[in-house]
Amino acid sequence: MSDIFSEALVLNVSIIEAHNKHYEVFPTGLIDKEAAPNANIIYHLYSDGSITFQKGSWAYRMRSEFPLEPTIGSHRELRMNFSNEAERGLSYVILTEQECRYFRSKMIELLQKYRI
Length: 116
Fold this sequence. Notes:
By secondary structure, the protein is α+β, with helices and mostly antiparallel strands. It has one domain. It is built from two helices and five strands. It has a five-stranded antiparallel β-sheet.
């Protein structure tokens, strides 16, 4: 029988695998050091379900980070733990915008399934 913790663990592993896949071809993943910062937008999916974006290339993490999607209400129940540590006990992965939105929707579906 499946429960939220085992399903969340499977989803967590899938999210980290998607993040790691970007580094298989390029050592910097989705961060293109040769591109103009505005041409290389970087998206973070946080363990609370929020999504942010910022300029990439050489400007990555040196400029403002902007919210794209807010925190998911009962995110603590999922107990996600991603590849990169962030503030307030959160963690994040770097994915494409499409991947961030897809995995966020899976997090929401999981919470709705268990009505948390």
